[in-house]
């Protein structure tokens, strides 16, 4: 009876460890999904065309067609989509405009009237 309790305890420990691993994985997926949704919201605010957004999505799906071994496919797709979205030209032009406006504001030779 004691041996049976020890075995049950070991099984429960293994199950708990598997649940904790799954919880961490889901937490990472949730975090990446939130990042992607924030980028999509920003792109919507920048009036990205549906065609451009469709191209980004198709490019992501194309690059993730064959899952890489040892990597969660869902996380891989979200991570690739995140990188595709951050590489979007609208974000690049927006950051360039911000840098230029900061530079013009910090120029000591500019005199405002």
UniProtKB/TrEMBL annotation:
Top-level taxon of the source organism: Eukaryota
Keyword Coiled coil: yes
Pfam families (alphabetical): CCD48
Keywords, in A-Z order: Coiled coil
Alphabetized InterPro entries for the sequence: CCD48
Coiled coil: 2-46
Name the record gives this protein: EFCC1 protein
Record organism: Ciconia maguari
